[in-house]
Write a structure and sequence with these properties.
Blueprint lengths: L1 E5 L4 E5 L18 E4 L8 E2 L12 H7 L3 E4 L1 E4 L2 E6 L2 E6 H14 L5 E5 L8 H16 L14 H4 L3 E5 L10 E4 L8 E8 L5 E7 L7 H20 L5 E5 L16 H21 L6 E4 L6 E2 L9 E2 L2 H14 L3
Parallel strand pairs: 3-5, 3-15, 5-9, 9-10, 10-11, 13-14, 14-15
Antiparallel strand pairs: 1-2, 4-8, 6-7, 7-8, 11-12, 12-13, 16-17
Helix pairs in contact: 6-7
Amino acid sequence: MQLIVVSSSFAQGYDTEQWMKELEDEMLVSSLSIPGAHDAATGEGLYSLPGFGGTQSLGLDELWDCGVRVFDLRPAVNDTLLYIYHGRLRTKMSLTEALSVLSAQLDNYPSEFAIVLLREESDSENEAERALWPSLVGKSIHDMGERAAVFSPDMKLGDVRGKVIFLTRSSYIGTDKGAYVSGWNHSADGAVDACITSYTNGKTARLQVQDYYAPTDSKKRAAKKSVVNKYLAMAHDAPAEVWTINFLSGYSTTWLGCTSLATTSGYKRNAEWLHPYVLERLKNDKRHVGILMMDYAGVDKVGGGLWHWKPFHVCGKEIVRAVIDCNFNSVK
């Protein structure tokens, strides 16, 4: 898939399957603009009632091919195996399968790297399963060998090509690869002083993160748009070594007019409402945006469903491209 990016000084062609190939090794990873997929494995299918829990319509391979490089994966223990969940809903993909997909893509495109955002999705686990989570996840990362990256606050693109960077909100054991994230919250203000701590050497990086996920009425939608806008500006204004993760994702409706539930249509409606605004901003202001996490990445239109019959225009393909373009049109 060949795209042409026109900047003020030159035309730069890149393939979305390997768009990092065009970037310099000396670029700080924290200075890159990277599209990401919220609850990325839901596009592989869910064991659930129709209409609940879905946030993607593409599988991991397809997300990669369209340019996504950050994958939100939330494993939980089911008996003694790790499956990817969204809340209490199990996807049709295990953690082992997800990491195998990413490893295969890195074999095919060694100029690239991937970031996996991990969190224990503990709602479905019993006490014994929760006790197993740290060691099972640590073993999964350990078994990747050199494919798993050593996190360093000042790591550069050349240091991590062909590797997976693990950033986790739930601690694991049994490996010194990856990093632990503290200070994350879901408020309408976000967290400007969250911290990423390397498992390898204890070095830390500052993280500014916005993950306000339930804009279910007009007041909350205004707050969501405001905080997304705020973190877009903060990403550019912060020093290059500061990491920014900005979630566009969320569900913007109530179910049956009363209870807030994470329906698939709610995620689609939020994307249809918010993505065009962000896309327009990115087209007009091609500055560094950090990691931008989204629902329905890689597709511009998705069908309706149980709660909504008309298709949703979510601009997910356009917005992934616009985020990538920021790397060729801006200087951080």
